[in-house]
Design a protein that fits this description.
The protein is α+β, with helices and mostly antiparallel strands. The chain has 17 helices and 21 strands. Helix content is 32%, strand content 23%. A 7-stranded antiparallel beta sheet has the order 3-2-4-1-10-9-11.
Length: 504
């Protein structure tokens, strides 16, 4: 769950400010690190570091990020470490000079790392799968042996990337002296859109971003999502090309984007995230009325922010008041993204404070988008009780998260998922609620499907354990579990990296 953006100005205007503004809009997709690389007269200028966008980029950095073309990235770690050495975009000088930013996760990194070292003779400087993706692309560009880059060469290289790489990925990149490119994995697991802005001259500026909200805010016109397996190329002089680069594309995007990851004002693959969440609330309220028609719920209270839309619709359908019972400190990061369990526990109390009068003496229905580890849920239930609630029920707008997600979301190891090998009643006891209700998976799929003219199939692997790529082995999941354990993450050691022209 990273955020990517790329902007190309055909008039030669600097794009640094636009990329910065776009990254702030995409900040919800990653708060671990941020980076921008721009291109000016065949020279790359780079600034990246750990931290939020507003902290990584100061005026002195922005002033030195020259160029009418650039890409940006906000990161939270899914593979590798949280080291600043793995902040994106990444750069390779051979061939041509290429930079790339990536959202997603490759599931065959071990194989690719060996191939890159032993067969492609390429050096990897980090543990990041994004650097692997870049080097696979760079190698496939190099073996074609052309002095001048062409769009066909880029498309052919991306077709080879699809053949070699497994997993979910959306990427944007630049090639010195040529232009910008973007591509999406053959299942469309991770989102990416492009837009344009027509100038008085009739020429067009272009933007590529993870979500439509970045396109809207920067006053570009959304053209469409990239299709699964598709690639686009935009040359320095504004010529646009698009081509399907996968032999067997299948649109099966990640449904968790609609549950939690994306902003509600985004549209992904023709589906309004806001409408999808409204529908989730409608479906879940219908389930409550079906399984517990004589409920005595006094008030519906969302756990901000993602669950607000679903909770509002639930309250309307249930015929009970909707209240904002928790006030959020917006200067604390998203607890789902926090790398350590101790940090997560501490951050919940720093992040939320209860308004006691909304809880006192009431049967409160708390609504959240999902329950992952259960740590946050348990603390929030206790906060409701401490504020005087006589009864606390808990509703999850998504089904039980029982399986790790492998395509670009930092889901914990299965052993850390509270619903793994537990019944609904057992999860209810763990989080300390009086009653717990989950969304049914079929209802979730219908809720998202009915929110627009979009895909009919979704990847629901974290709920169902069925991985759409069909190549996720038990051995891979075991290795991923070891990698994702909080104890392993706490041992990460900051490392140094060789950069290009750093703007410090």
């Amino acid at each position: 769950m990273c955020g990517i953006i790329g902007i190309l100005s055909v008039n030669g205007d600097n794009v640094n400010q636009g990329i910065y503004d776009g990254l702030t809009v995409l900040q919800h997709r990653g708060q671990d690190a941020a980076g921008i690389v721009t291109l000016h007269k065949d020279r790359f200028y780079q600034r990246k570091d750990n931290g939020m966008v507003k902290d990584v980029f100061r005026t002195r950095h922005m002033r030195d990020l020259h160029g009418s073309m650039g890409i940006g990235h906000v990161r939270y770690p899914t593979a590798g470490s949280a080291s600043s050495a793995e902040a994106q975009p990444f750069y390779v000088n051979s061939p041509y000079g290429i930079v790339l930013a990536h959202n997603g996760n490759l599931i065959n990194t071990d194989v690719l790392s060996r191939e890159l070292y032993k067969e492609d003779l390429r050096h990897l400087n980090t543990n990041s799968d994004s650097e692997i993706l870049l080097n696979v692309f760079a190698h496939e560009m190099m073996v074609q042996g052309k002095e001048q880059v062409t769009e066909d060469q880029v498309f052919e290289a991306i077709a080879k990337v699809h053949e070699r790489c497994r997993g979910g990925y959306a990427a944007v990149g630049m090639i010195a002296g040529f232009g910008m490119f973007a591509f999406r994995d053959p299942y469309g697991l991770r989102p990416v859109v492009f837009g344009e802005r027509t100038l008085a001259s009739g020429k067009k500026d272009y933007i590529i971003a993870s979500e439509t909200v970045a396109v809207d805010v920067l006053e570009f016109k959304v053209i469409r999502d990239l299709a699964p397996g598709e690639a686009i190329v935009i040359t320095e002089d504004g010529r646009f090309f698009a081509k399907q680069c996968s032999s067997k594309p299948v649109l099966a995007p990640c449904i968790f984007e609609h549950v939690y990851l994306a902003r509600p004002d985004s549209v992904i693959d023709g589906i309004s995230v806001y409408e999808a969440r409204l529908n989730m609330g409608e479906k879940l309220a219908a389930k409550i009325l079906r399984v517990n028609p004589h409920h005595d719920i006094d008030v519906v209270i969302p756990i901000p922010d993602t669950s607000r839309t679903a909770a509002l619709q639930m309250a309307q359908r249930l015929g009970v008041p909707y209240r904002e019972g928790f006030i959020k400190n917006r200067y604390i990061g998203r607890t789902f993204i926090m790398p350590g369990q101790t940090q997560r526990k501490k951050s919940v109390r720093q992040k939320l404070n209860a308004i006691a009068r909304e809880f006192a003496g009431k049967h409160v229905l708390l609504v959240d988008d999902s329950i992952v580890r259960g740590t946050t849920s348990a603390q929030i239930v206790q906060m409701a009780r401490d504020s005087g609630a006589r009864k606390v029920s808990f509703a999850s707008a998504s089904p039980a998260v029982r399986y790790p997600y492998v395509y670009g979301i930092d889901m914990p190891a299965a052993s850390e998922l509270v619903a793994n090998n537990r019944t609904e009643e057992e999860v209810c006891a763990v989080i300390g609620a009086d009653w717990l209700v989950y969304q049914d998976l079929e209802d979730l799929e219908v809720a998202v499907r009915e929110a627009g003219q979009g895909p009919q199939v979704f990847d629901t692997s974290c709920f169902s354990g069925i991985y759409v790529t069909g190549d996720v082995s038990a051995e891979y999941l075991a290795g991923l579990a070891q990698q994702r354990e909080d104890s392993a993450k706490s041992k990460d050691i900051e490392s140094s990296a060789v950069g290009l022209h750093n703007v410090d």
